[in-house]
Amino acid sequence: MHNCFSVRPSDPRQKRSGVTLVEILIVTVVIALMAAVSFPVYKIIQQREKEKRLRKILNDVRSAIAGSKSLLSDADFSEGYRTFVRKYGLSLIPNNKRAYFLQRIAQDGYGFPGTIASLSNPPFEFDVPVSDVAGDVVTIKVDRKFIRNIPPHPFTGWNPAATWTYEIQGVGIKNIRSKGAGLALNGRKTDDW
User: Fold this and answer.
1) Are residues 93 and 130 in the same domain?
2) In the structure, what pLDDT confidence band is assigned to residue 17 with cuts at 50, 70 and 90?
């Protein structure tokens, strides 16, 4: 006779339910290893994306300053600030003053934007001398945007010192550069791009 309170040895054929502490520890270790491996990979992917964005911004602003050829056709040319000023000025002055005008926009920086904001904030105008005579100038009227805006530096979230610097030639901005973003994944300094 069996007493309802009697303890019988457990039946080995009976199925267990639940998980053991060892199984929980194994799963925890596997998840921790996966996280430890994926975090550095995620950081590399983030840096690669920031580098791509930085290169695109630099190329877009440089194209807005100087213009750029199309990758698909030699005939297509995107008119930048510099080519616009040159073409607009040449259309306004007589042939005998064109050489002087071209020399001034090349050497003195009149062919470059005076501020980086002038690439995206028309209209404005400025005078370019066309001879050595004082007051002999041509007024260049810029009425178009060459770039929508200058985006913030992509690395400022990681490095607050990352910023834009500008190379000046005469009275205008000749080039834009990144400063303080650090090393790229390929080991080169982003300041050299």
Assistant:
1) yes
2) confident
